[in-house]
Design a protein that fits this description.
The complex is a heterodimer of chains A (178) and B (188). With 178 residues, chain A is an alpha+beta fold. Chain A has four helices and eight strands. Chain B contains four helices and eight strands. In chain B, helix 2 runs antiparallel to helix 3. The chains are: A alpha+beta (178), B alpha+beta (188).
């Protein structure tokens, strides 16, 4: 049986950083983002209103300024702060573990998946896959809620990607990334 | 199999972990490398906030709106304390249980082979070789050996219930010698 996808690749730092950002986007529920955004907007508005109408003393002004800053932090947390932190930690992690990275060969058949590298061999049936997530730059295959393997989309063609989407079936998910 | 340092082989055994083993190992991983990392100092910041607000209540004459404001701040600080000291750790164990339930590979019996420089784990579907230089943490508890390392901080969990006393001692001695900085014993 021939695999519909067979590629050998090496993960670059850019691949790893982009995957980390996309994986984080997948793992944080939209509800959480909305709650933090709403709380940030509320704090910002409350702080501004307090500064304009309720400022009686210096420590009141200080409290409202703190509230405004907290509101701005919450509004920008997921889009700016968190992304910067993830980028930095992913880049540092890649730099430290670079020597452990070897080229990998991935083979995906209609009913099974194989990953081969110098220090790892994985051969699992399709039923062992928990989820397949496609971002802008990576495809992340979850073996359970935590463990995953990934490869950059640059190594595969569009027809192979279509077959991968069919392979994923109900467990296939597209990551909405700006 | 007796430990034989001369040819680099330390121990060889089969091991199958339970969901409670993995949950405990994941909780340990979360404390060392995950969201629970640094929970003590984060909780202490919130605790300091509670103390400051209590001092303000005792020493400063406040109006009713100010009491409400500082009351809310104190409640948030108490929530932060409880979150970091208690809830976060329990949530990690619960998440570990969920991960174990969602995984097919973790339910498999693994064959472990520990050598002087690396260890190998084999089951019906997977073969992994990991060098000790990749390990960031090696935690020994009364029930488990937990090795954290490799790309994306992979977790290797060995249940001591499956080992003989000789194997346990050989592994303890080997880890403490090979991974001096990473090795820790957790009594409870």
């Amino acid at each position: 049986m021939k695999p519909f996808l067979e590629e050998t690749f090496l993960i670059t730092e850019e691949d790893y950083v982009n995957m980390s950002l996309e994986r984080k986007k997948l793992l944080i529920p939209k509800k959480n983002r909305m709650i933090v955004l709403a709380a940030g907007i509320f704090a910002l508005c409350a702080g501004v209103m307090g500064m304009i109408f309720l400022r009686n003393s210096l420590y009141h002004a200080f409290s409202y300024i703190v509230l405004i800053l907290l509101g701005m932090y919450a509004i920008s947390y997921y889009d700016v702060v968190d992304r910067s932190l993830i980028r930095k930690s992913a880049s540092d992690f890649y730099t430290v573990n670079q020597k452990a990275l070897h080229s990998q060969t991935i083979r995906i058949y209609d009913s099974k998946l194989e990953i081969l590298s110098e220090n790892r061999r994985l051969r699992i049936p399709r039923s062992f896959i928990y989820q397949i997530a496609e971002g802008n730059t990576s495809v992340i295959i979850f073996l359970d809620k935590n463990e995953f393997i990934f490869f950059p989309k640059r190594i595969i063609t569009e027809p192979q990607l279509e077959k991968l989407r069919a392979f994923g079936g109900d467990q296939y998910k597209k990551i909405e990334v700006r | 199999m007796p430990a034989n340092i001369y040819n680099g082989e330390i121990a060889e055994f089969d091991c199958q972990i339970k969901d409670t083993d993995y949950a405990e190992a994941y909780r340990i991983y979360d404390i060392r490398r995950g969201r629970s990392k640094g929970r003590e100092w984060k909780a202490s910041i919130f605790f300091a906030g509670v103390i400051v607000v209590l001092c303000i209540f005792m020493m400063v004459h406040l109006s009713v709106p100010d009491y409400v404001f500082f009351g809310i701040v104190m409640l948030l600080c108490i929530y932060g304390c409880v979150y970091y000291v208690y809830w976060l750790s329990n949530r990690a164990a619960h998440r570990g249980m969920e991960i174990f339930e969602s995984s097919h590979l973790l339910h498999e019996t693994i064959h472990c082979h520990f050598y002087r420089d690396y260890y190998e784990i084999t089951n019906k579907y997977e073969f992994i070789r990991r060098y000790y230089t990749e390990i960031t943490d090696c935690i020994e508890t009364p029930e488990l050996f937990v090795l954290i390392g490799g790309l994306d901080n992979k977790l290797t969990v060995i249940a001591k219930a499956e080992l003989t006393d000789e194997q346990k001692n050989a592994l303890s001695k080997h880890f403490s010698r090979e991974m001096i900085k990473q090795y820790r014993i957790k009594r409870k």
